[in-house]
Amino acid sequence: MKVLVATEKPFAKSAVEGIRRIVEEVGYELALLEKYTDKSELLAAVADADALIIRSDKVTAEVVAAAPKLKIVVRAGAGYDNVDLAACTEKGIVVMNTPGQNSNAVAELAIGMMIFMARNQFTPGTGSEIHGKTVGIHAYGNVGRLVGRYGKAMGMNVLAYDPFVADKGVFAADGVTAVDSVEELYVKSDYVSLHIPATEQTKRSIGYDLLSKMPKGATLVNTARKEVIDEEGLARVLEERSDLKYITDIAADSQAALNEKFGKRVFATAKKMGAETGEANVNAGLAAARQIVDFIRNGNRKFQVNK
Ligand code: 3PG
Which of 67, 135, 203, 244 has minimal Cβ neighbours within 10 Å of its Cβ? Predict the structure, then answer.
């Protein structure tokens, strides 16, 4: 049984060692493809793989077609918009994620990004404090919930919007105020922290209409996906409202133009770094390896996302 770890953005060494231990302990073989620069390398590497561990690596129909033995793909992380689920399902390949395993790292970055923008990107000048401000959590999943908890610890007023949370008691139990509409979240929040996945419904859903409703001096914090932003709408509102700011962990396609036009009111990390901590790599990577072993040995499909 061959388990391939294919990571254009590699895991920390300790995570790879942990994955190797789990895989080899049960007599499977581990193959590593790290920092690849061309998809042909991935296509060649999957040829004899029975199981695949990835991060944001793209598993397209072409990759699936090149992997005749593949039985399971585990995205070591939360969002699986990089996997062609239909192509996998068609070939009977099980796809899983590892929900919650890297959430803390992303939540810490979101809070850090708020402070970074509140303090002029750590350059001289008078900044502001996040204490006493309102943060609106857009989607209350594993990451959003932690951002809420840390926001409260920093003295922020925490609002949340998530129509998919069935048990509304969760918000009150966390001391968080659930708002009734997405518009209300944007109207009331000095910071909106995005935690929605990239789906057909959410792509380009955050644009002019919502952002223009934000209060004076507000900041949009994106540690989710670039695809959820309507970049033209974002540029338009930044143009009209010189008080608004945008910080993202996933550079926009038009990031260079945004940077040039809006200077320090916008910021993008050089490469997505939300889950880039040793702890998150170990948590997500080892969970992925365990899920593969548990699926192949016991048929456990608990974290399957293409049911
Ligand atoms: C996720 O969906 O888990 C995060 O976006 C992390 O992605 P990464 O593994 O590519 O850093």
Answer: 203
Which residue from 272, 279, 305 has its CB within 8 A of the most atoms of ligand 1, so it is best to mutate? 272
- Indicate the pairing of strand 266-268 with strand 245-248: parallel
d(CA 48, CA 66): 9
The dihedral over CA atoms of 81, 83, 84, 88, expressed in degrees to the nearest 10, equals: -140
Q: Whose CA is nearest to atom 6 of ligand 1?
A: 275
**Domain 103-268: homologous superfamily in CATH:** NAD(P)-binding Rossmann-like Domain (3.40.50.720)
Average pLDDT over residues 145-169: 97
pLDDT at 307: 87
Record the pTM: 0.98
Domain ranges of the chain: 2-101+276-298, 103-268
Pocket test for ligand 1, best of 55, 109, 194, 283 (most atoms within 8 A of CB): 55
| Whether 305 contacts 96, CB under 8 Å | yes
CA of 165 to the centre of ligand 1 (A): 22
DSSP 9: S
Quickly count: other Cβ atoms within 10 Å of residue 231's Cβ. 18
CA atoms of 213 and 79, how far apart (whole Å): 28
Q: Is the CB of 78 under 6 A from ligand 1?
A: yes
**Quick check: 189 pLDDT over 90?**
yes
Domain 2-101+276-298 has CATH 3.30.450.40: no
